[in-house]
Specification:
Length: 232
């Protein structure tokens, strides 16, 4: 029997205020808006990156018992309450880059790999992928989150036995999303997925619509949220 899960991955930029948001926009308002977005998208599993020691409360979900720090902020994984009834999921961490949650015979690795350009940063990200693979207790594996990978790195990662497809839209687009108005303008696929062990990704969506309030239209993060539907 095929099992399916929906997964939301979102780097929330430390819940900082967009340069396009109202001047008095607060971290509490960001938290509430992110909570409502998650409720609207209604995923089975929520993966947050770049949290500021604060995890948005989602009443439909439970957070796994791990909140590790990455190179910027913290990671958190939330699972729909119905999926945590009875025996809880198995949880492990890879220092500074990942929290792994295993349930129903599959491991979901919520990752925030090192940032930066150049050979050294690329080599570090590749080693972080290897560490996640070694830490996974199951062959069925989903690595998903802010991978910070560049397009030219994907081939080396897939040579480790993982498969992937680019999201249908850039998950970072600072030409359209002026979260930091004076920042560099480029697009990228930082948030993306890699799978192994018979896992299939049925759909991938990138949610690019801005938040609207008080006659302002702005994004809640410099990264767009991404959802996938998986089957295994």
């Amino acid at each position: 029997m095929r099992t399916t899960f929906s997964i939301l991955s979102w780097n929330v930029a430390l819940l900082e205020r967009s340069d396009e948001a109202p001047f008095n926009w607060s971290i509490e308002q960001s938290e509430a808006a992110i909570r409502q977005t998650v409720l609207d998208l209604d995923p089975d599993i929520v993966l947050f990156q770049e949290l500021p020691k604060l995890v948005p409360y989602i009443e439909t979900h439970e957070m796994v018992r791990a909140n590790p720090e990455s190179h910027s902020g913290h990671l958190a994984t939330l699972i729909r309450r119905e999926l945590t009834e009875g025996r809880g999921p198995r949880v492990a961490t890879v220092p500074r880059c990942a929290v792994l949650t295993t349930l129903s015979g599959i491991t979901i690795a919520n990752v925030h790999f090192t940032s930066g350009t150049g050979e050294s940063a690329a080599a570090e990200r590749l080693e972080q992928v290897r560490m996640v693979q070694r830490a996974s207790p199951t062959d069925s594996l989903v690595i998903i989150g802010d991978t910070n990978t560049r397009v030219e790195e994907v081939r080396q990662i897939t040579e480790l036995g993982l498969s992937t497809e680019p999201p249908p839209w850039p998950t970072w687009d600072s030409r359209r999303n002026h979260f930091r108005a004076d920042g560099p303008k480029f697009t990228s696929y930082f948030t993306r997925w890699f799978v192994a062990g018979g896992v299939e990704v049925d759909t991938t969506e990138v949610w690019t619509d801005p938040h609207e309030t008080e006659e302002h239209r702005f994004h809640l993060s410099d990264h767009y949220p991404m959802t996938i539907e998986i089957g295994f």
